[in-house]
Design brief:
DUF6809, 95 residues
């Protein structure tokens, strides 16, 4: 079994593709979005709907950038917490 570092180096770890919300509201929300898109596809002309899809694609790209930054911030914060724990800095128990 390869280490996480080996897998990361070899490009076998894709956190952005593996992170799927476990929140019970996630799937119903996506179904609702799909339903609304189907409704708008019927109401709008093909050109208008294509413009709407482009807007939604831009919003999706923006969300991916935010998620990337949130992931990196959280990872760095977790690493800093581990460094503090491992170095014994600011001990929780008074000696």
């Amino acid at each position: 079994m390869k280490s996480i570092l080996e897998e990361l180096y070899e490009g076998n770890i894709y956190p952005n593709e593996l992170i799927i919300s476990k929140d019970p509201e996630y799937r119903p929300l996506n179904k609702k979005i799909s339903g609304m898109l189907a409704m708008w596809k019927k109401k709008l002309s093909e050109d208008e709907y294509n413009q709407l899809e482009k807007l939604l694609d831009l919003r999706s790209q923006s969300s991916l950038l935010e998620a990337s930054q949130s992931f990196m911030y959280g990872f760095k914060l977790g690493a800093l917490i581990m460094m503090e724990v491992l170095t014994g800095k600011d001990e929780l128990v008074r000696g």
